[in-house]
Design a protein that fits this description.
Layout (H helix, E strand, L loop, with lengths): L2 H15 L13 H11 L14 E5 L6 H7 L3 E6 L2 H14 L3 E5 L13 E6 L9 H11 E12 L33 E5 L5 E5 L8 H10 L2 E9 L11 H7 L3 E8 L2
Helix pairs in contact: 2-3, 3-4, 5-6
């Protein structure tokens, strides 16, 4: 484990122990809720929604007991890899609660060499690729382990998202960082502020994050023999909100991008 992995592992363990929203397993989810989640998070593809039951699904760097619960409830054979031990504990908690089998692997998304070629029907990659500097390296490995015709769903940060709502200047929100793929983002505040599952305020130092340009993501997918089938920008904000507020900033620039792609190798 290199310095970056060790640092981000410690940060995500701390965030998970503080019960950040990404580390709250879906213990109350039922089959209807799981299908609704998929309709929202895969339904923007122009391909038909795949049948999930019996599929081999890989939740890549997606620990926390949320995505794995969705696929497990719907009858998939679920494998999850994550750098955080605590996040994987949440996945095991959800699997035990709902009664589905789960393969949980502690590891780094930059090294998928332990997985065989053509091993998965679906790779679901929740927001995490921005925690490593080389997106193409990860995407290339996904292209190897997904089966021909298999689906890769990837979420990444909008590369123009380099501002905060407090940066409002009466004219707009200025870009603060160069548009360079792989560059570490220089945050003005390295601590993540959030409420835990009991509503208590928490402030925990976050992991290192890196910019990935649109060309890095989409050319990486093309080079790995993926055909892009859908693209989504989210969440939506409120254009009528007061400038300098979170909802107004979201209406100007959504922070997250999700793409679906099909392997054509």
């Amino acid at each position: 484990m290199d310095e970056l992995a060790a640092f981000n592992r410690s940060r995500w363990n701390a965030l998970a122990k503080a019960r950040i929203q990404y580390s709250r397993p879906h213990l109350d989810m039922n089959e209807k809720g799981a299908q609704e989640y998929l309709n929202k998070n895969l339904g923007f593809s122009h391909e038909p929604m795949p049948e999930i039951a019996g599929k081999d699904v890989f939740c890549l760097a997606s620990g926390g007991g949320q995505q794995t619960a969705v696929f497990g409830i719907l009858g998939a054979n679920v494998t999850v890899l994550d750098l955080s031990d605590t996040q994987l504990e949440r996945d095991r908690e959800a699997a035990t609660h709902h009664g589905y089998d789960l393969t949980a692997v502690h590891g780094d998304m930059r090294d998928l060499s332990s997985f065989a070629d053509n091993n998965f029907d679906i790779v679901f990659h929740a927001y995490s690729i921005n925690f490593v500097p080389d997106a193409a390296m990860v995407i290339k490995q996904v292209g190897r382990i997904v089966r021909p015709g298999g689906i890769y769903r990837l979420t990444f940060s909008n590369p123009f998202w380099t501002m905060e709502e407090t940066d409002w200047t009466e004219k707009g929100y200025p870009l603060r960082q160069p548009y360079i793929t792989g560059q570490q983002l220089q945050e003005t505040d390295t601590e993540w502020t959030f409420e835990d599952d009991h509503g208590n305020p928490q402030k925990v130092a976050g992991p290192h994050e890196f910019m990935h340009t649109f060309s890095a993501i989409f050319n990486g997918l093309i080079a790995a023999n993926f055909r892009i089938t859908g693209f989504r920008e989210w969440p939506e904000g409120d254009g009528n909100a007061d400038p300098g507020t979170w909802e107004h900033l979201l209406s100007v620039l959504p922070p997250f991008m999700s793409v679906t792609a099909v392997s054509i190798k």
